[in-house]
Structures are given as structure tokens and as C-alpha cells.
Amino acid sequence: MIRINLKVLLLSLCAAVAVVTLSLWSRCGEVVMASRGRKGGAQTAEWDAANKKMRNGQMTVKFDSYIGEALERGGSSDLQAYEEIDCHINGEYSIGCRKEGGEIYLPFSFLHKYFEVYGKLATYDGYERFEWSHSYSKVYYPKGKYDPRGVFMYFENYNVEVRDRVKCVSATEGVPVSTQWEIQGYYYPTQIAQFGLSHYSKNLTEPEPRHTVLEDAERDLARWIIPSDATLTRELDGQTGNHVVKFSSPETYQNGVSLKLDHVLDFVLSLNVRLGMNSSFTVVLQSREKRDQVFQLHYICSELLISAQDQHVYHGIGNCDQNQLWRRLTRDLVVDLHKGLAYQNRLKRKFSRSKLKVIGLTFRGMGQLDNITLSTSEHLSQFYDAAQWLVNHQDASTGGWPNPVRRRVAPGMADLEPGWYSAMGQGHALSVLARAYHHSGGDTSYLKAAVTGLRPFNIASSAGGVLARFLEHIPWYEEYPTQPASFVLNGFIYALLGLYDLSVVAPSTASQQATQLFKQGMASLKQLLLLYDTGSGTTYDLRHFTLGSAPNLARWDYHATHVNQLLLLATIDHDPLLTVTAERWIGYMSGKRAAHN
Ligand SMILES: *[C@@H]1O[C@H](CO)[C@@H](O)[C@H](O)[C@H]1NC(C)=O
Ligand SMILES: *[C@@H]1O[C@H](CO)[C@@H](O)[C@H](O)[C@H]1NC(C)=O
Ligand SMILES: *[C@@H]1O[C@H](CO)[C@@H](O)[C@H](O)[C@H]1NC(C)=O
Questions:
Q1: What is the Cα–Cα distance from 177 to 165, expressed in whole angstroms?
Q2: Which residues of 452-478 are buried (b: 16+ CB within 10 A; e: fewer)?
Q3: Nearest atom, ligand 2, residue 278 CA
Q4: Could you give the C-alpha distances from 46 to 49, 51, 353, in angstroms and in order?
Q5: How far out from the chain centre does Cα 166 lie?
Q6: How many Cβ atoms are within 10 Å of 576's Cβ, its own excluded?
Q7: Ligand 3: which residues within 6 Å by Cβ?
């Protein structure tokens, strides 16, 4: 029943929509505008009221403005009669519809909610039309064969650190801190890996960044302002054999050595530092529109993650010790400012980069500095921060990257206790580490972490690994190693991509292990893939099978992820099952459905 109605409605879309949005009537050739003051005018008022009522029921399409416009335009004297008619919906409730000749028109706001379809008015090429869409997500067609040394999926479009569920980018680690499942913030390996992969991918796709060197101590020093109780000198550094800047000043706030700047557009600061205990530095940003709006970003020797008060934002760079090795810090100043304002719930509207400038930089305490730059981006530094985090925070004995939060996946499944591993997190980590191994020209610390990271793929999820078996038989790498198993599809495919990445980039023995796991996973994927197909979309997991519950239907963005993943896999595995399935699933996104009996 519903399907037939939908088809009829699609065919008469222009007409159907015109009923709801009176302003469209004059655009639709076959429908004639109802005139004001006669029957149509009175009905307009009723429609207005009816639509207001519907909006209270959370309808998302706005009608009042269109109706207002239509009233103003009015004028047309040709009349085609339509009648109001009640539509009884499944015998459960009624809504107001219209009857015109043999056709019945339903309000789009109703269709939107009933069928979860989307629509908006759009004006271009000089006229307005209504655009109906069955889904809201995008398919990315791969440009060529997937290459583990290249862009990861379409992650060049990701901007992990600006997401609301990222509390801040840790200034100690250089990686994002998530608040998704625990509000105080925690390191979430999957998110950290995505941050790394997005920066790696952006490095390959974005235009060349601009860099301005503020200080490199190679020639004369820049024009530092040095208070009388402070010193600043240029010296040869024993560790690097380079000239660096050495400074010392009281630790108190005002009396630092500073640079006065007037720098716009480039907001990624990076510098090499070696700071003594209690030292700190501050970057001063100013609004270009309201010059009295000045923000101070303080980077302090502390384990503090982030704190902020009024115009002051604090990020801890960890404990400092003048005897430690040189560190390179990379900070996106605009992200740091936004996170500081969000920390105080003051981020109503994000400052765009074009509305800010950097006006100063101050160092306090004592230490050494080199290579201070402001750049459009420092994607590779941020990528390597993620890769280094993965090397430093792996459980050495198991090879897992622990998720330090409790997680409930579905009612009826046991909670995952803090410390669980995710096949998706492991796979993403392999994708990062394989790229770092490749890009660094063979740094074995990345390879070693990646190979160790394969271990959980061989350990049952019931025993602390990520391996489940469908019907005790078909192996599956679990994004969430739940009891009973959940068989999440997108996380499994991300795990496969990580295994593939390592298999391509690693030398022989390591490559063999990854290849074997990848092949095993591809075989499972082909066996189980169609269990996710509902005939009009996909399911996110197989909980309907393992829990006996209703299927967990994939939202359109997850459905699109399934499609994008299959299209990508199809560039490295030519089994037609992948492409044929992907094409059918693409069809679902524009309302096509599998045939019925
Ligand atoms: C990408 O990284 C290379 C160094 O490997 C650098 O020269 C280039 O400017 C970077 N490009 C972008 C867009 O980040
Ligand atoms: C750092 O600050 C603490 C607390 O203010 C102080 O006790 C300590 O002496 C300082 N250390 C140095 C090396 O200045
Ligand atoms: C500053 O950059 C130069 C050029 O990349 C490098 O040789 C030098 O070691 C860097 N300085 C420090 C202290 O790392």
C-alpha cells in the first residue's frame, strides 16, 4: 500500500508540493494558483493554522513564509477547484489533505515524517523549485585503486579536532581528547587515529601551506622585547649542532621576553622548545573587528589538559625539565581558542580565521627555542603526533590500544569494561602506522607497533581480543567486542583496510601475517555481507540475529559509509559481489527498493 502511494506521490511531486507551499503554485504548469479572497484565500488561513499545529509536532519544513509570499502575490483570477479532505492514516489518526480531480495531495511535512524523506526549496537559474531527496548522504567514488601510501578513504574532508565531542587537542600529546562517552575527556584511539589519517590525507590533497619563520636563530635574532630583568642570547646547541635562542626571565606573568606581531591568516604555530621547570609561553590573539577583544593562549608546564577563564585559555604541555630532549610543539591556535571558549560555554559563534590575528608571543621562565613558525597548516606534524601517540600508548603485552571507558552497546549485551580493544581502533592504528612507516622512510618503531597491533585479531573477544565467530564458525573482527557478538559492519571493514595497509607497506614476515588476516576477513565479509541488506537500506550490525531484537537500521550516513567502503574494497578485490551490492545499496539512497514477491 505504502509503496504504491509513494510512487504516485513521486510522479505528481510538483503538484503535491504545490498544495503545501502555495508560492509554488504559480510555477507548476499544470496547477493554477488559487486566488485570494475566494475559496483559496480562506483555505490559506486554515492551512497556516494547520501547519503551525504540525510544526509543533516537530515538522521541520517551514510554511508560514511561503504562504505569506503567496498571499502577497495573489492576483491570479483563474481558479481550479480543490477541496479539503481528511486523510485517515492507517485508521489511526487524520490529517488535512487536498483533493483535486481524481488526485489526492498530502502535505510534505507529513511525508517527511512518515517516510523520513527530505525536501527543501531551492532557487537557481532564475526559478524556485522543491528538491526532494530520499537520503542526505554522499557517495564517494574512488578516483583509482586504493593505495595505502595515499589518502585514507575520503578523510581529507574530516576535521576531527573541531568536532564538539573533542574537548581539546592535548598540548602534551598533540592529539584530540574525546568526550563522546565520558564527559571529563579521555584518549580514544579510534579518534586519535582518525585525526592522524585526516591530516595525512590533507597533506596530499590541500594546496601548499604558507610558512612564516618568526625565529630560527640562524642569522640575527628577531626583534625581541627584553625586560631589564631578563636575558636572551643566541647560542650553539650541543644536541642539534644548530644555533638556538636561550632565554631567561622571571616566571611571573608580565615579565617575559616577547615578540610583537601583526600576523593574519596563518594560525598554526610550531616551535622547537626545551623549557625549564615552571616556564610557560603565551600567544596573544586579537579580533580584527573588535580590537578590544584580546585572547591569551597560555601553554604551561603542567599535566593540566585544558582550563580557561574569561579571555585566558590554558593548555598543559606536560612537566618541563631543562635536561629533557628537544620537543616540537604544533598548535592550531584557532582550535585552541575555540576549545577554551567552549570550555567556558562561551562558544556561541566560532571565530573564523579571517577575523583574528596574532599580535604577540611571550616566553617566561627559562629555556631554549628554535624554528618558531606560523603556518597555514602543519598536517604532517599533526599526523606524526598521532603516530607517536600510538607507539607510546600501546599495551606492550597484548598489542591493543585500550579504550579507557565503559561502553554499553545494546540492551542485552554485557557492558564493555574500560580497557577493551576495538578492531576498528586497531585497524585505524595500523593504517596510521603503515603510513608513518612508509613516509618516514622505514622507521621501525612504527612497524613494530603495527605488527604487535595484529595480536588482538587472533584472540577471541571473550578473552580480551577482537575476534568473534558467526555461528561459531565465520571469523569477524569486532569494533565492539561484545557478548553476545554485535558484528558491526563499518568497523569491520575499517579493520580490513588497516590490515590491507600493513600487508602492502610492511616487509615480508609482517606482511604475511597481515595478509593472512586480511584474506580471512575478506572471505567472511563476502559470506555475511548480504545479511546486512534490508532491501531498502542496511543494518549497522547483526544484533537482530544475536540478540533476537529489532534490527538496528543504519542511518543514511552509516549506510553511505558502507557503500563507500565497498566501493573502495572493490578497487583491490574484483569480486563482483562487492560492486553489485554497492550499486544496489546506492539505489536505496534514492528510494529504490528490492523487488517483492
Ligand atoms: C605535505 O608534506 C610535505 C613534506 O613531506 C610538504 O613539503 C608539503 O608542503 C605538505 N603539503 C601540505 C598541503 O601540507
Ligand atoms: C616552581 O614553582 C614551585 C611552586 O611555585 C616552586 O616551589 C619551585 O621552586 C619552582 N621551581 C623552579 C625551578 O623555579
Ligand atoms: C630547526 O630546524 C632545522 C631545519 O629543519 C633543524 O636542522 C634544527 O635541528 C631545528 N632545531 C631544533 C632545535 O630542533
A1: 9
A2: bbbbbbebebeeebbbbebeeeebbbb
A3: 1
A4: 5, 8, 47
A5: 10
A6: 8
A7: 237, 240, 242, 244, 272, 326, 370-371
Return the C-alpha cell found at 123.
532557487
User: In angstroms, what CA-CA distances link 310 with 93, 205, 352?
Assistant: 53, 37, 19
Q: Across the chain, what does the average pLDDT equal?
A: 88
pLDDT of residue 295 exceeding 50, the answer is: yes
Over the stretch 393-436, which tens digit does the pLDDT of each residue have? 999 999 999 999 999 999 999 999 999 999 999 999 999 999 99
Q: What is the pTM of this model?
A: 0.86
Contact 255, 263 (CB under 8 A): no
Pocket of ligand 2 (CB under 6 A): 277-278
d(CA 73, CA 63): 16
Q: Whose CA is nearest to atom 14 of ligand 1?
A: 203
Q: Each residue of 188-202: pLDDT tens digit?
A: 999 999 999 999 999
Q: Which atom of ligand 1 is nearest to the CA of 206?
A: 13
CB 486 within 8 A of CB 478: yes
Q: What is the DSSP letter of 33?
A: P
- Residue with the smallest CA separation from ligand 2 atom 2 is 278
Integer distance in angstroms from the first to the last C-alpha of the chain? 14
Angle at the Cα of 98 from the Cα atoms of 122 and 18, rounded to 5 degrees: 15
Site to substitute for ligand 3 among 329, 330, 370, 381, most atoms within 8 A of C-beta: 370
Give the pLDDT score at 351.
82
